[in-house]
């Protein structure tokens, strides 16, 4: 029966891929890879790529109104990378980008008209995407488009939107423009609208997190589940430190102490250079960033994470200040000690909990010890070990 189901879903996905192949002139293989990638990003079970393929092929493209305020346009840049025509084609096929100030051909009154027309034609159905923070000081005069303040524009456009997505850290929580002393009163979309919205923070955010959010909306007719900051759980439920490829070095106390020193060249942990991975929630280490391959994320390239997705960390804490350790959970690659099943505490689960608490306390002790070490300390320890061994042999 499972086999028949698999054959049926494969057939459906193949049929959808054939349509896309003709429509976008990209290969079926590329399209199916894209659907599997989005399904994996969303953490959906095997077979979900067929539902995604069908939704992308059949769905009426949702009208998207994209507003720009205080920002650098890096969010749009990362999404529409010229080096990756497949991604760009797919995005423009999945959504109908009816208003986007930096991409649209129209200007002036024509541009204003296309925004109004798209909003009227798709009333209650369009998706509003906001890029950039919104200045609220002095009646919002520090950012105006077409004579309207950003505050007025976002309120006007959100009123009849089916969903509001704040893309990038600026729109999600203020980002760089809100850095102290925040002279323009740069605020988030949620603060200005006075209600929670879906946020995709990052400066810029991973394009796949945005794309997967839109595909979720198309496939299931609703936005994905989020945390209390509006961040989709599929992307922002784990600390970077939990999935980092340098985590083994952290656990062993091997740290880069300066850019270019031996520890840095050996790929050691960047904690002592100010890496904010231990207090930043995002899927950068598992997803990579952009399309250049697995090392294409800050830590993979040898730069500490600056916590760009995290309010109160990115653009708030000094870059070289060491991160706050939020927990001492083992990395996700390690086998779990206990699986959570059912409800209520049994004797066994209480015992397991006690064991975990003990392990955490032990972990904290190791952590304290290791954080005091560096590459030099490690070398010294090795030398002492060797000296001790030699002595014992004499
Ligand atoms: Fe820039 Fe977007 Fe940073 Fe902000 O990304 S990459 S300043 S999050 O709004 O354009
Ligand atoms: Fe990776 Fe940074 Fe954690 Fe080190 S501190 S393991 S570099 S996330
Ligand atoms: Fe930003 Fe850190 Fe990821 S700086 S891109 S959250 S690794």
Automatic annotation (TrEMBL):
Keywords: 3Fe-4S, 4Fe-4S, Iron, Iron-sulfur, Membrane, Metal-binding, Oxidoreductase, Signal, Transmembrane, Transmembrane helix. Its main location: other. [4Fe-4S] cluster 2 binds at residues 241, 244, 269, 275. [4Fe-4S] cluster 1 binds at residues 72, 75, 170, 203. GO terms for cellular component: [Ni-Fe] hydrogenase complex; cell envelope; ferredoxin hydrogenase complex; membrane. Residues 236-314 form the Cytochrome-c3 hydrogenase C-terminal domain. One of its GO terms (biological process) is anaerobic respiration. InterPro entries: Cytochrome-c3_hydrogenase_C (IPR027394), NADH_UbQ_OxRdtase-like_20kDa (IPR006137), NiFe-Hase_small_C_sf (IPR037148), NiFe_Hase_small_N_sf (IPR037024), NiFe_hydrogenase_ssu (IPR001821), TAT_signal (IPR006311). PROSITE patterns: TAT. The keyword Signal applies. It catalyses: H2 + A = AH2. [3Fe-4S] cluster binds at residues 284, 305, 308. GO terms for molecular function: 3 iron, 4 sulfur cluster binding; 4 iron, 4 sulfur cluster binding; electron transfer activity; ferredoxin hydrogenase activity; hydrogenase (acceptor) activity; metal ion binding. The chain crosses the membrane at residues 347-367. Residues 72-216 form the NADH:ubiquinone oxidoreductase-like 20kDa subunit domain. It is an enzyme of class 1 (oxidoreductase). Pfam families: NiFe_hyd_SSU_C (PF14720), Oxidored_q6 (PF01058). Its EC number is 1.12.99.6. PANTHER family: HYDROGENASE-2 SMALL CHAIN, NIFE / NIFESE HYDROGENASE SMALL SUBUNIT FAMILY MEMBER. Heterodimer of a large and a small subunit. Belongs to the [NiFe]/[NiFeSe] hydrogenase small subunit family. This is hydrogenase (acceptor). It comes from Sulfurisoma sediminicola.
């Amino acid at each position: 029966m499972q086999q028949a189901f698999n054959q049926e879903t494969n057939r459906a996905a193949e049929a959808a891929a054939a349509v896309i192949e003709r429509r976008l002139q990209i290969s079926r293989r590329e399209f199916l890879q894209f659907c599997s990638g989005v399904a994996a990003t969303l953490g959906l079970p095997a077979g979900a790529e067929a539902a995604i393929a069908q939704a992308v092929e059949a769905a009426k493209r949702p009208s998207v109104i994209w507003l720009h305020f205080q920002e650098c346009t890096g969010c749009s840049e990362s999404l529409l990378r010229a080096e990756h025509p497949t991604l760009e084609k797919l995005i423009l096929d999945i959504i109908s980008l009816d208003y986007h100030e930096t991409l649209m051909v129209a200007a002036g009154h024509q541009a204003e008209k296309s925004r109004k027309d798209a909003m009227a034609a798709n009333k209650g159905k369009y998706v509003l995407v906001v890029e950039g923070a919104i200045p609220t000081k002095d009646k919002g005069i520090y950012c105006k488009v077409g004579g309207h303040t950003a505050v007025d524009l976002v309120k006007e456009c959100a009123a009849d939107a089916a969903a509001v997505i704040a893309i990038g850290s600026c729109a999600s929580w203020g980002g760089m423009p809100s850095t102290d002393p925040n002279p323009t009163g740069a605020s988030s979309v949620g603060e200005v609208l006075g209600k929670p919205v879906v946020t995709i923070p990052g400066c810029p955010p991973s394009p796949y997190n945005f794309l997967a959010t839109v595909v979720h909306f198309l496939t299931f007719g609703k936005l994905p589940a989020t945390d209390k900051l509006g961040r989709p759980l599929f992307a922002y439920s784990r600390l970077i430190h939990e999935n980092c490829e340098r985590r083994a070095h952290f656990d062993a106390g091997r740290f880069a102490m300066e850019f270019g020193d031996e520890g840095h060249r050996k790929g050691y942990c960047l904690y002592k250079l100010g890496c904010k991975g231990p207090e930043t929630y995002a899927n950068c280490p598992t997803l990579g960033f952009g399309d250049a391959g697995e090392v294409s994320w800050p830590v993979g390239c040898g730069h500490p994470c600056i916590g760009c997705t995290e309010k109160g960390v990115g653009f708030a804490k000094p870059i070289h200040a060491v991160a706050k350790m939020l927990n001492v959970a083992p990395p996700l690659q390690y086998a779990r000690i206990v699986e959570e099943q059912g409800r209520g505490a049994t004797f066994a689960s209480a015992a397991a909990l006690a064991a975990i608490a003990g392990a955490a306390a032990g972990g904290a002790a190791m952590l304290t010890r290791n954080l005091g070490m560096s590459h030099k300390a490690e070398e010294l320890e090795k030398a002492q070990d060797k000296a001790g061994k030699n002595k014992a042999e004499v």
